[in-house]
Amino acid sequence: MSVEDAVGRLRDLAGARRRSHGTAAEVTADTLRELIMEGGLRPGDRVVEESLLEPLEVSRNTLREAFRLLVREKLLEHKVNRGVFVRVLTATDVDDLFTVRVLIELTALRRSREPNWTAMTEAVAQGRAYAAAEDWLGVGTANMRFHKAIVASVGSARLDEIMDQLTAELRLGFHEMGDPRAFHEKYLTRNAAIADAVSQGDIEGAVLQLQEYLDDAKSEMLAAFTA
To answer: C-alpha angle 145/149/152, rounded to 5°?
Structure first.
């Protein structure tokens, strides 16, 4: 995503988020988090206040408070006398992120209140559309929406907040994986298989597939981070 595309997308996200509840700083943090999850900010990028004030339409104090919130979420980091930067993940971060994913996502599949899994199937369709257009950054975003849909099916606002943070942090890990097509394409197919299993009522079969999926993704990412 180019700088121009990122700024344009930030305006779109900010416009949608202004209808959200929360303080101005919380809404601004939500907007920036979503941009990170979509791949609009990359690990190591310097986050320049002046470039964000106009598209976000917020004050400098509000933006700085949003930065502080995202630093606590481990998405940004403040470097003394240098500024604010998008955080670069470590192998330890990746290992911990997948520990949390296994605990949350497998339990969510088993405890879902979703009668028809619409959000999951829509995410699979979005991923396929992005793949057809060879937009592999978009495929990664659709993948994150698929996993957020699994957790959202439980109906817990707190779990949804955790997944918002988790998927944004995972996107930072995706940037370290080299060719995005080589990484994302096979998982798009596996998302579809999980969605098919749950639509047929085979929840335990879907859980087993998801467990293997997460184990494989963890191993692949850790190998990239420790190479």
So the answer is: 130
